[in-house]
Q: What sequence folds into this?
């Protein structure tokens, strides 16, 4: 398949490398000329595409699937994106669980009130232009060099009892592959590891925070819809053990 990753950042590069290894023709775009050579190491094509400028997108013609990975909370890309003339049989948008309110309860895709306005506007911008879009709302991105241990290497954690809503990039890669191969369209899915340990537990502190993973006193993002609809088994279900393995389609 010919697959475009539009806005190829940290996750996009991981995805491009994986899909290229699977034999797909991957087109990666970036707004930074400095990243072109780097993206050429993981994709068949790398192009500049900046929706704030008139940079053109003819190279996206005849693409089988487009994955939109623009900065979800920034509105600078809206106008240029709306002017795109390309059509895509299949589209996926990378969004964020940051769209849900900062309230201590369990959130599912059925929650549609008090959503964060900038992220909600971005989702609307994409789905109005491409109604067939599947939206993936990611939790905190982890895996490889991205870990709490690195983030807190030289500072103390102020809230070790806080429950986490994280996702390993290898699960993102596997779930995107599932969606590319699926006939399902225009869905919204939370993409978060099903276990929600306390930050102190993830950091391997000796203090115990032994409460239910779905403690009602915490802000928890549920991925049950994704698990149910795709019969998906997470490669990395528990952020305490986010070790790297080769991603596989577990659906």
A:
């Amino acid at each position: 398949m010919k697959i475009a990753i539009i806005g190829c950042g940290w996750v996009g590069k991981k995805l491009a490398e994986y899909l290229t290894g699977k034999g797909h023709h991957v087109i990666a775009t970036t707004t930074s000329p400095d990243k072109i050579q780097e993206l050429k190491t993981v994709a068949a094509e790398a192009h500049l595409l900046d929706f704030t400028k008139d940079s053109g997108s003819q190279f996206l013609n005849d693409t089988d699937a487009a994955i939109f990975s623009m900065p979800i909370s920034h509105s600078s890309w809206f106008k240029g994106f709306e002017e795109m003339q390309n059509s895509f049989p299949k589209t996926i948008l990378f969004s964020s669980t940051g769209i849900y309110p900062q309230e201590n309860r369990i959130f599912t895709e059925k929650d549609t009130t008090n959503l964060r306005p900038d992220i909600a506007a971005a989702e609307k911008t994409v789905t109005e232009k491409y109604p067939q879009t599947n939206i993936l709302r990611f939790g905190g991105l982890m895996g490889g060099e991205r870990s709490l241990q690195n983030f807190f290497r030289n500072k103390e954690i102020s809230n070790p009892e806080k429950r986490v809503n994280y996702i390993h990039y290898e699960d993102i890669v596997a779930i995107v592959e599932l969606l590319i191969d699926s006939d399902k369209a225009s869905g919204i899915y939370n993409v978060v590891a099903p276990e929600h340990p306390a930050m102190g537990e993830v950091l391997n502190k000796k203090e115990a925070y032994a409460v239910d993973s779905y403690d009602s006193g915490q802000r928890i993002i549920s991925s049950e819809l994704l698990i149910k609809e795709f019969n998906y088994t997470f490669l990395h279900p528990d952020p305490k053990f986010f070790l790297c393995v080769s991603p596989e389609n577990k659906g």
Observations:
- The first strand starts at residue 2 and ends at 6.
- The radius of gyration is 18 Å.
- Confidence is low (pLDDT under 50) at residues 244-251.
